[in-house]
Amino acid sequence: MTHNAQISSDFLVIGGGIAGLTFAIKAAEAGTVTVLTKAGSSEANTAYAQGGIASVWSVEDTFESHIEDTIRAGAGLCDRAAVETIVREGPEAIRELIRLGTRFTRVGTEGAEVDSEQEYDLGQEGGHSHRRVLHAQDLTGREIMRALTEAAAARPNIRTLENHVAINLLVETATAGKPGACWGAYALDRETHEIRKVISRATMLATGGAGKVYLYTTNPDIASGDGVAMAYRAGASVANLEFYQFHPTCLYHPAAKSFLISEALRGEGAILKLPDGTPFMKRYHPDAELAPRDVVARAIDSEMKRHGLDFVYLDLSHRDADFIRRRFPNIFKRCLSFGYDLTKGPIPVVPAAHYMCGGVQTDLDAHTSIPRLYAAGEVAMTGLHGANRLASNSLLEAAVMGRRGFAAAREIVASGGGAPPEFPQWDPGRAIRSEERVMITQSWDEIRRLMWNYVGIVRSDRRLERALRRIELIKDEIHRYYWDHLLDADTIELRNLAMVAELVVRSAMSRRESRGLHYNIDHPETGGPEWVHPTILQKPDLRI
pLDDT tens digits, residue range 275-322? Predict the structure, then answer.
């Protein structure tokens, strides 16, 4: 393992989803860009988004309506300025995606050339008062990633380093109460095991979420909370991590690996039922299947516990078969491969960890509390989502904030502002290669299982306290292992996973009420004005 390589560029982007590539493509106009991705672009969280991207597009819709829908779903914790800014800038961000080659599904003949913007097919999803979800059939994220990846590859100023795992941010020492600036990151090449210094004048964190902290998740394997953990270790503020959204409907099948069943099915009339065929959502919310996700996920969880079920059913078979195959071709094919025909009967579904509504705290220009460090997308907490994310607002936020982050980072790069300090090469000390991988797999499984059982859809004070005690012990074991052995991707991810788990638990323990995605049976009521604020953690709150 070598540790003497250095890469320098004007901009560093850690992560290759919609937020990171939107930033990188624009930054290529202003300087050199390095993009670090843990795997290929097909594994970015964005690529797994099925439903679409929400934005005011129809003449029948209004910004005010989208703003109020978002705030209503956010259970009193949305930052209104963030909501208004991101919603109002949504249409232009989508137009830019279209200019870069994204092919959203149109009304009528798919792929037909239609001049009017209003000819795009707009989906209906839970919590929205209008049809406003642009989509590419049921593979929206994959189509956006195709367009952005091709656009990035066509720009010579962008260098993409795949299979590189960021380890720690390069942050200079604080002086006289002034926080030190970020000048890049250490990164591990997963193939050569080389550890590199990647120096930059502005760094964008776009690492996505942390679904892997839970036993069941819709996220890809790379979603281990790296950005939140790195930023926290570097001294950045993180916020609202108690609000983890569980997608209500994932296919229940041992080989399906929590395959997501898009909310768009419920938007088109799919009904949740018990095994005997009884619908149950009307008992939980007047909007039934189109209630906000936190309500739907808790309802399913409650019915499963009440009846001792492993799953409930989702039924769209009452709709026309041709419509189902045309509107949801990917979901139809995947379900069929597991033996379920959407056109003929219900499919078994369960909730799974889906989206991190909290993250690294930023302003509306994507600034974190560390100079020269920016964050956008799922890793960031802008205030848009509050205590619960409105469906399909995630890709919207990522596209808008990637653009806004670039506008801010361009200014800092253009202004110069001095040279980076000389950071040391990575020193492995006396670390040796591990011969006991079971220590990693055991800790990994333990964290994910205890988070699922104690810090999941429904929580209690006792469960949270037990989770914290176990995580603290596991973190001590990981700390010793981390410094005794040569680094690899699994060790880096495990360290980050344990950090994020503790941050989620600490955040949940500090909010002694139930609001949005955070439901504690010991504090089942929503509190008063004293709780209408973000939950913020920053070093030295925790020992790391």
Answer: 999 999 999 999 999 888 888 999 998 898 889 898 999 999 999 999
pLDDT bin (cut points 50, 70, 90) of residue 45 is low
Range of the domain at 516: 438-526
CA 54/CA 70 separation, integer angstroms: 11
Q: Which of 322, 326, 318 is nearest to 344 (CA)?
A: 318
- Cis before 540? omega within 30: yes
Determine the Cα–Cα distance for residues 132 and 140; give it in Å rounded to an integer. Answer: 14
Looking at residue 425, its amino acid is: Q
Contact assessment for residue 396 and residue 22, using Cβ atoms and an 8 Å cutoff = no
How far apart are the C-alpha atoms of 61 and 429, rounded to whole Å? 60
User: Active site residue: 201, 293, 410, 459, which one?
Assistant: 293
CA 346 – CA 31 distance, rounded (Å) = 53
Q: Return the closest-CA partner of residue 377 out of 4, 23, 31.
A: 23
Do 236 and 263 lie in one domain? The reply is no
Residue 428 lies in a domain: no
- Which residues, 6+ apart, have CB-to-CB distance to 448 below 8 Å? 212, 213, 214, 215, 497
Indicate the burial class of 417 (C-beta count within 10 angstroms; 0-12, 13-18, 19 or more): middle
Could you report the per-residue pLDDT of 191-235, keeping only the tens digit for each?
998 999 999 999 999 999 999 999 888 888 889 999 999 999 999
Q: Residue 226 corresponds to which tokens in the numbers above?
A: 């790296």
Domain CATH number, residue 283: 3.90.700.10
Give the amino acid at 288: A
What is the distance between the alpha carbons of residues 295 and 386, in angstroms, rounded to a whole number? 15
Please list the residues that pair with 350 across neighbouring strands.
Answer: 250
Q: Establish if 16 belongs to a structural domain.
A: yes
Q: 315-353: per-residue pLDDT in tens?
A: 999 999 999 999 999 899 999 999 999 999 999 999 999
- For the chain, the farthest-separated pair of C-alpha atoms sits apart, in whole angstroms, at 69
What one-letter code names the amino acid at 97? L
Angle at 7 between CA 3 and CA 8, to 5 degrees: 140
510 within some domain? yes
- Model confidence over 386-425: pLDDT tens digits? 999 998 999 999 999 999 999 999 999 998 777 888 888 8
Tell me whether residue 293 is one of the annotated catalytic residues. Answer: yes
pLDDT score recorded for residue 216: 84
Helix spans in 108-225 (H): 140-153
Domain termination site, one of 319, 351, 383: 351
Closest by CA position to 274, among listed 348, 209, 341, 215: 348
- Over its C-alpha atoms, the chain yields an Rg (Å, rounded) of 22
